[in-house]
Structure prediction request, 596 residues.
Amino acid sequence: MERESYVYKTPASKLVQVAAIAAEYRDRPDMLMTVLIRAQKVVPAFSKAVASVIAREMNIPMNQVYSFVTFYAMLSVKPQGKYIVRMCKSAPCHVHGAKEIVEAIEEQLGIRIGETTEDGRFTLEYCPCLGLCEISPAIMINDKAYGNLTPESVKDIIKQYIREDVE
Amino acid sequence: MREVHVLLKNRGKIDPKNAQEYAENGGFEALRKALSMSGAEIIEEVKKSGLRGRGGAGFPTYRKMEFTAGAADPVRYIVCNADEGEPGTNKDRILLSTDPCAIFEGMAIAGLAVGAHVGYIYLRAEYTYIFPVMQAALLHAESLGYLGKNMMGSGYDFEIKFRSGAGAYVCGEETALFESIEGKRGEPRFRPPCPSIHGLFGKPTMLNNVETLANLAPIIKNGAEWYRTLGTEGSPGTKLFTVCGNVVRRGVFEFPMGVNLKDIIYEVCGGIQDGHKLLGVQTGGTSGAIINADQIDMTLDIDSVSASGGRLGCGTILVIDDRNCIVDIVLNNLDFFRGESCGKCTPCREGGQQLYNLVNRIATGHGAIQDLEKIDELAETMRLTALCGLGHSTAVPVQTSIQNFRGAYLKHIDRDYCPVCSEGGGIYR
Prediction:
């Protein structure tokens, strides 16, 4: 299973873009994080093909790329949605009604936590503390943070993304 | 109770991206002074101030400086730990987003003290949106000649570089953070050698928390004597407290060390929300002790909190009201730890999961009284044998809650009705 989800098609044009980013840091293994974070703006997840291009251009072993990607929660080898909705599940959000927020998002998107919508636009997942504890319960959608949520307000926020009403 | 703003003095008052405004508010004066001092003099001043690390461990800052300054290798690094992963704390986010120049200045002073010319700021991925602010502030400060090459015409270069994490709590551990900057999995290293001899890229390195570095400029500028007028004998200075959970007013507050926990909850934060009653408080984040409502008359400084079995840690105060169940909260804590264990050492990787299983059994009404002993034994094993702080502290909330809320555990073991756990409990089940 795990292996299968690692091998899927990445468009050649995207591979070229990733290669250009990785080539800037040839023989700089310490810049792997920088490369991956920049590459993540081009491809949402690191398929075998993407990892192999990065490894070749940076001149590092491919298993280093794979072991690195699988270690960090915000890097993924599996295909991800265009928008990744991260729900904080740590104690400060937990005591502030995180459960109701999750249920509202699940209802709105029609998926359960850990799943991606069929159209590939939304992934919903739990994550540990987002550091927004004074405005819990909180979520992040890609790089944007939202706090002081209620089941109603979070639905409005998700609606903006569904309509692509975001910059 | 009035707040004392030493670290938060610029919060909301200056444009964080504008280094000129920072300078006009007294910024970079400490750095100018430090440039006329020798490294040993800076360390001596920090030693006299009694500053202790604000990231959690409370280690005397001057000793880290001495070790690094005394290392044989001339190439040294300063690392700012902005991987603020402890659930319940967001003080560093406030510092970095409202006053980034204060952190840069602190790093430059630390660089002068130990003879380093390069500093890294490792920012957690959850705070990516702060990068543009920090980058703009640094560029501005460099263009005005305060930082970077030939700082203020002194001939001393100090370069600051930004690095990002990608979602790993364990990278807040200093050697794991080094590994991550080096482009590897963030797994802690075995010690010795310690980071002041063999740290980032194998070079002597001093790593400090964001808040610790923010303290350096006020100390150098106003002197150690002034600094000691704040706080207590054992923990001088002010501390940022992140108060979260079920209180009326949540937020980041700055008080001198030694304030009373009860006063913070009831006077500063307006007590418990919606007229509910206090159930317990977790200080120091998820890896801290959980105390009950009768124990909150407590002095908050590094030593007194440690004496009560917990730790001040990063200054988190999580207030839990009577709509919650302590066993459920502990289960939430353990779910966090079992997910964040890096897996390098067995006590933490397996122990965290087993602790979760044991507490889960109790929460779901399948536990026995013997399980409490098993938990204790396992906790002790982890404390003695785990590789890093993550494994050492996993059991702290479990053990302290069993001590302070024994009745709650017995209730679950007796299979009495619990409005939280019996109704499906935690959000992740």
User: Anything to note?
Assistant: Chain A touches chain B through 41 residues (CB under 8 Å). The CA atoms of residues 159 and 165 of chain A lie 8 Å apart. The longest strand of chain A covers residues 83-88. Strands of chain A lie at 83-88, 122-127, 139-141, 144-146.
